[in-house]
């Protein structure tokens, strides 16, 4: 780049957008597209968490510390060396980019091509060598070969350009934080959703709320909304208790730099180096706050009893007769408007009024220091800002006869409610069991929204991390291959998909706005459009609105007709401030947020059950309806408009959630995800027909995410037929040649090398890779197959699919064994198919063993490959068997004993019952005898792409 070239372009862009050197942007908004510096950067990886030293300096987070990654300068307005020397602070990027080193990336790409050629030659050989003795097996196996190769290609192609982005929080603070403690960072509304305080532990929800209130983000710019779809007083009063405890917990966190800021997780730490500045006060403060937290937990655990006892007392005082509805009463002596403990008309789940209650009002815009230590208050907060972020409880109205659309409907109701109250330009959504583990997470995510070209970023997706998972991660809950492999690689294309929680949105993208610019192909394929395009959009642009136009009620700037947004003028009037907040930034900052009775009434009105009738909500606006995986399709609808997304992985982890408590709940979780994916495939959101604004490889990724459950159909065949071939004597391949083994060796060899390279750049371990493959086998044989059946029934018979909420409430004795509940057997019909596959493979191996001993097959080599494949299947189903047959620590012996017992009994029975293998024993020449020297082979692909053959 020529010296001064970047500066010249920057000045030209500033002038084009009305910005003069040395002055702020004329639009008045400090984080608009015209005021950003060149920024192409990235989020830190959690791959090297054991090697990352967490800096004690405030605001610093861990980054990638791996020789596989190299920092590169992808900006177009800084010097080629990427240095910051001489660059004004307003022009320094708030995040940087790291790309994989060529020594790993180039062989990775070449091997994908080599494996594709080898697999093609392998399939050609299979087609040209039919097995006339078992033609149906041959045809079915060929179909399976095609599908496994196709699914492997769908999974592999989007990984051609892995990239890592690392936020620079130091630059962010220098650019946006002021010396007086105020900040120019944009507002942020955080949505937390819950549906059942019994299946989703209420204490976990309270901890999530407390971690949000204590996060390191400007207090006056941070608002937390809790959506309670159950409408129960239990949830509300738990939040009241959380708000009270927050007055102690939040200042304590700020004074001593506490990490993590979820109290339950913090107090469970066995050792934690102190990073604050008041070492002498820390021990006493911690002891006092721990006592307060124990009392807080006791109150939370006793709420259910207290509410029932209080309600019984009030109802008894009223002298209610038998049959009269018994109300649930609040602490102030008023009846609860939501669901009652003893449900009645207008006060039960699915039938109650809407509720919006402000638990903590919007704070002032200046610091408020706490009182010094005293006899009544031993905690000294005299030098600590004690303000709390705004906290709002929301329970949308529910009525019989309305489809409330589950979580998607709750998110859309929160979007409208928050627009009326605070209307922050950015939204973060979290599940109720996810707490903020890194107090810098909000700042890290906002980095990707504030740089040059960041106005085209629709959302920033964080990886999902979990606690409560056993050290061996038996059911692959961490799913590191997907998050640190697939999603990180998609960041090099158009961006990661939206996975439901831990996602930071630009509000206007939920309103149907188009991006200001569109670059479909990125730096590699700028003019390459999508395949099978159905619609082509014109290049859009954000239309600037004026304050006068809004005052007159003109809404011509809206991307959709006004009626599409509903009948609330207050909500529609809020859209200009979200789409282009600059004309109102100063006024909003001075006036603060209004929460008077009229505003609350309007907030309740936009959450009514009938509000969305004849509007665009759920189709063109907000979270999309019609599927249980509303997250994937919502992100997809943004990508086909030309929006981009970013992946943000930092260490310490940004958010940590609770994993499903046992095998049954994990299978139901996967069933829900896979069913939703197929629903998208059979809907108008099929990625095959998306717009040309979808990056070609992004389209491939979406096709993969919506078709992967079909793998179950062919996987069932490959996990059973080879084992049954030992019994029937009919094999898939009749006589393998030398070229068969050559092709197979290349396919297997390249797969293993690709796996090593992927493990290296993704930062996962080989054990995690194998564990992911094991659970992939379990899920494919159970949940995926069930999903295919359910969706086919829905498509053919037009029947809706219902799901139960995944339970994360442990029932085991956690004090004796924290992972005991993982091994509690809870029967489900999803377990039937894996059990059958295990039995078939054990029996098949035993029969092969018996035939060799009995002399029907004269050489061990004839069956070694087939038996190896059978044990490969059993190895992948081992975690399933372990979770099915016993508890932690005892299961391995049980599993091995049962396998050995079944194997020996089958072999003995086969040898000693003559009519099974025909007269003559080892000299017999029945059907099996004719195939004694036959051969068979098989191949299995998919995410792992394993391929196996045997003589």
From TrEMBL:
It is a multi-pass membrane protein. UDP-alpha-D-glucose binds at residues 199-200, 229, 406. Keywords: Cell wall biogenesis/degradation, Glycosyltransferase, Golgi apparatus, Membrane, Transferase, Transmembrane, Transmembrane helix. GO terms for cellular component: Golgi membrane. GO terms for molecular function: glycosyltransferase activity. PANTHER family: X-BOX TRANSCRIPTION FACTOR-RELATED. This is Cellulose synthase-like F6. It comes from Urochloa decumbens.
């Amino acid at each position: 780049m020529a010296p001064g070239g970047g500066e010249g372009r920057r000045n030209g862009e500033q002038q084009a957008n009305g910005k003069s050197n040395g002055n702020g942007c004329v639009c008045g908004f400090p984080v608009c597209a015209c005021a950003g510096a060149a920024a192409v950067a990235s989020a830190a990886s959690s791959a090297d968490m054991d090697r990352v030293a967490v800096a004690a300096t405030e605001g610093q987070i861990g980054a990638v510390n791996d020789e596989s990654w190299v920092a590169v300068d992808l900006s177009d307005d800084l010097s080629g060396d990427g240095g910051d020397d001489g660059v004004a602070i307003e022009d320094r990027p708030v995040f940087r980019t790291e790309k994989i080193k060529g020594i790993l990336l180039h062989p990775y790409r070449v091997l994908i091509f080599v494996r594709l050629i080898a697999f093609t030659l392998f399939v050609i050989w299979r087609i040209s060598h039919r097995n006339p003795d078992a033609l149906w097996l041959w045809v079915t196996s060929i179909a399976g070969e095609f599908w496994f190769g196709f699914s492997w290609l769908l999974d592999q192609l989007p990984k051609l350009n892995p990239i890592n982005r690392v936020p620079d929080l130091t630059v962010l603070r220098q650019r946006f934080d002021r010396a007086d403690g105020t900040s120019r960072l944009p507002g942020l509304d955080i949505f937390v959703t819950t549906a059942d305080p019994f299946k989703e532990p209420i204490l976990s929800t309270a901890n999530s709320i407390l971690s949000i209130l204590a996060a390191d983000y400007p207090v006056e710019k941070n608002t937390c909304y809790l959506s309670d779809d159950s409408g129960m007083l239990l949830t509300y009063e738990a939040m009241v208790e959380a708000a009270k405890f927050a007055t102690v917990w939040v200042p304590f966190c700020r004074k001593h730099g506490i990490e993590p800021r979820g109290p339950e997780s913090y107090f469970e730490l066995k050792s934690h180096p102190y990073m604050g500045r008041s070492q002498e006060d820390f021990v006493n403060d911690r002891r006092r706050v721990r006592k307060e937290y124990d009392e807080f937990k006791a109150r939370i655990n006793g709420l259910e009893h207290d509410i029932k006892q209080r309600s019984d007392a009030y109802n008894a005082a009223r002298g209610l007769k038998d049959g009269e509805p018994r109300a649930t009463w609040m602490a102030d002596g008023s009846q609860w408007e939501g669901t009652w403990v003893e449900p009645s008309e207008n006060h039960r789940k699915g039938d109650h009024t809407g509720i919006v209650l402000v638990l903590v009002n919007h704070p002032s815009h200046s610091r408020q220091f706490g009182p010094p230590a005293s006899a009544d208050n031993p905690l000294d907060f005299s030098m600590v800002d004690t303000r709390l972020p705004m906290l709002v409880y929301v329970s949308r109205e529910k009525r019989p006869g309305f489809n409330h659309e589950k979580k998607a409907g709750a998110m859309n109701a929160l979007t409208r409610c928050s627009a009326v109250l605070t209307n922050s330009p950015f939204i973060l959504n979290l599940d109720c069991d996810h707490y903020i583990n890194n107090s810098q997470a909000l700042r890290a995510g906002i980095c990707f929204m504030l740089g040059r070209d960041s106005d085209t970023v629709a959302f920033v997706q964080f990886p999902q991390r979990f606690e409560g998972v056993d050290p061996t991660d038996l059911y692959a809950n961490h799913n590191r291959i997907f998050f640190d492999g697939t999603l990180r690689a998609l960041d090099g294309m158009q961006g990661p998909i939206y996975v439901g929680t831990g996602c930071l949105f630009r509000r206007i993208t939920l309103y149907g706005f188009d991006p200001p610019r569109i670059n479909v192909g990125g730096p590699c394929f700028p003019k390459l459009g999508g395949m099978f395009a159905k619609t082509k959009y014109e290049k859009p642009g954000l239309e600037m609105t004026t304050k006068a136009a809004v005052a007159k009620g003109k809404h011509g700037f809206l991307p959709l007709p006004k009626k599409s947004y509903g009948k609330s003028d207050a909500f529609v009037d809020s859209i200009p401030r979200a789409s282009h907040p600059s004309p109102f930034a100063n006024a909003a900052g001075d006036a603060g947020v209004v929460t008077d009775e009229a505003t609350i009434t309007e907030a309740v009105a936009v959450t009514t059950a009938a509000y969305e009738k004849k509007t665009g909500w759920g189709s063109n606006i907000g979270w999309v309806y019609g599927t249980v995986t509303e997250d994937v399709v919502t992100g997809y609808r943004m990508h086909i408009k030309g929006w981009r997304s970013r992946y943000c992985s930092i260490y310490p982890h940004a958010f940590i959630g609770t994993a499903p408590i046992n095998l049954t709940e994990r299978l139901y979780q996967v069933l829900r995800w896979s069913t939703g994916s197929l629903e998208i495939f059979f809907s108008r959101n099929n990625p095959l027909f998306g717009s040309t604004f979808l990056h070609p490889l992004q389209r491939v990724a979406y096709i993969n995410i919506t078709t992967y459950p079909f793998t179950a159909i062919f996987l069932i065949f490959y996990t059973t037929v080879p084992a049954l071939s030992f019994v029937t004597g009919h094999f898939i391949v009749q006589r393998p040649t030398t070229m068969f083994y050559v092709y197979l060796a290349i396919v297997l060899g390249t797969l293993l090398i690709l796996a090593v390279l992927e493990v290296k750049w993704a930062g996962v371990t080989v054990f995690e890779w194998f564990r992911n493959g094991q659970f992939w086998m379990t899920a494919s044989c159970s949940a995926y197959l069930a999903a295919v059946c359910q969706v086919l029934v829905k498509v053919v018979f037009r029947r809706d699919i219902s799901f139960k909420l995944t339970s994360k409430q442990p029932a085991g004795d956690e004090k004796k064994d924290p992972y005991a509940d993982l091994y509690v057997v809870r029967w489900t019909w999803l377990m039937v198919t894996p059990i059958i596959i295990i039995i078939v493979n054990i029996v098949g191996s035993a029969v092969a063993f018996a035939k060799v001993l009995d002399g029907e097959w004269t050489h061990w080599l004839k069956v070694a490959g087939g038996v190896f494949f059978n044990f490969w299947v059993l190895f992948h189903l081992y975690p399933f068997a372990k979770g099915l047959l016993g508890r932690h620590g005892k299961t391995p012996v049980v599993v091995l004993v049962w396998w050995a017992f079944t194997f020996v009994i089958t072999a003995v029975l086969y040898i000693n019952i003559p009519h099974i293998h025909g007269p003559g024993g080892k000299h017999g020449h029945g059907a099996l005898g004719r195939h004694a020297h036959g051969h068979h082979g098989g191949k299995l692909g998919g995410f792992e792409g394993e391929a196996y053959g045997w003589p």
